[in-house]
Design goal:
Elements: E1 4-11, H1 21-37, E2 42-44, H2 62-66, H3 79-88, E3 91-99, E4 105-112, E5 118-123, H4 143-146, E6 156-159, E7 162-168, H5 175-182, E8 188-193, H6 209-224, E9 227-232, E10 235-237, E11 240-242, E12 247-249, E13 255-258, E14 265-272, H7 277-281, H8 286-289, H9 296-299
Parallel strand pairs: 1-2, 2-3, 7-8, 8-9
Antiparallel strand pairs: 1-14, 3-4, 4-5, 6-7, 9-12, 10-11, 12-13
The chain binds 4-methylsulfanyl-2-ureido-butyric acid.
InterPro entries: Aliph_Amidase/BUP, C-N_Hydrolase, C-N_Hydrolase_sf
Protein name: N-carbamoyl-D-amino-acid hydrolase
Domain CN hydrolase: 5-275
Length: 301
């Protein structure tokens, strides 16, 4: 038995502030067409794909801040992506800044099926960085200013022939993110990231950026018997270098496909969801081997 999902990890190179959504969506459509030519079932785009990574700036003008958010999905600007996906019969996931009708702001990812219907939504829970202006930094990381903590936990959806989950960027460094989905029998986790190489409060970590990226995604995949598709927005954006290394990782913990550039690049792999089974049934059989009575501290405040 095998259940193959052919995945395209659609890494995106830098998106500058001057780039319009129309230009970005055109690049995404190009990657989607390439994925379709490889018979992909699913294309995974990065975190906050549609604009430059705006939390790097302290902004006070509400109009300026609002310009980075989506009030509807799809919108006039993103409709071409949904239309092309429906025409090609390909699913996708996409990260964007969400502004709800109630005025709430989230760092959000959606899962879209092969009929271009939104079937899953996740709002980022682990928001890194800081909320106040810290001018000593080379650049800001103001996710705590621009977003609320997500209110949807980590869902798992029956879609694209499997159990699909999502997390966003910093979530990948926290084992709990994977485990909440692991406990829902997730088979493939889709995740986008924007990771500056330089971390101003801890510059000694900079040389390890790619290593830590791989370490957490490979561990999360293996320890939960799931595929992980990690997709970067990378390259030098407004003078800030962000790492690439978009990877498709098997439940074995092995990287089976990886981007080589820091530009728009599609990485394709045929992923057998049934490869998750032997991990979920043996070494990580949660019902048989977990000891939740001894994990209480994890959920204490
Ligand atoms: N986007 C995002 O979550 N980036 C973080 C940067 C951490 S340093 C503040 C990451 O974990 O990659």
């Amino acid at each position: 038995m095998s259940r193959i999902v052919t995945v395209g990890a659609a890494q995106m190179g830098a998106i500058q502030r001057a780039h319009s959504r129309r230009e970005v969506v055109a690049r995404m459509v190009e990657l989607m067409r390439e994925a379709a030519s490889h018979r992909c079932d699913l294309v995974v785009f990065p975190e906050l794909t549609l604009t430059t990574f705006f939390p790097r700036w302290w902004m006070e003008s509400q109009e300026e801040i609002d310009s980075f958010y989506e009030r509807e999905m799809p919108s006039n600007e993103t409709a071409p992506l949904f239309n092309e996906a429906a025409r090609l019969g390909i699913g996708f996931s996409l990260g964007y800044a969400e502004l709800t009708p109630e005025g709430r702001r989230f760092n959000t990812a959606i899962l879209v099926n092969k009929s271009a219907q939104i079937v899953g939504k996740y709002r980022k829970i682990h928001l890194p960085g800081h909320a106040g202006h810290e001018p000593w930094r080379a650049f800001q990381h103001l996710e705590k200013r621009y977003f609320e903590v997500g209110d949807l936990s980590w869902g798992v959806w029956n879609a694209l022939n499997g159990h699909m989950g999502m997390m966003i960027c910093n979530d990948r460094r926290w084992p709990e993110s994977y485990r909440v989905m692991g406990l829902q029998s997730v088979e493939m986790i889709l995740l986008g990231y924007n990771t500056p190489r330089h971390n101003p409060p801890a510059p000694d970590h900079d040389r390890l950026s790619e290593f830590h990226n791989q370490l957490v995604m490979q561990a999360g995949a293996y320890q939960n018997g799931t595929w992980v598709v990690g997709v970067a927005k990378c390259g030098v954006e407004e003078g800030c270098e962000m790492i690439g290394g978009s990877s498709i990782i098997a439940p074995t913990g092995e990287v089976i496909g990886q981007a080589l550039t820091q530009e728009d690049e599609l990485v394709v792999a045929r992923c057998d969801l049934d490869l998750t089974k032997s991990y979920k049934a043996t070494i990580f059989n949660f019902d048989m081997h977990r000891q939740p009575d001894h994990y209480r501290r994890i959920v204490e405040q």
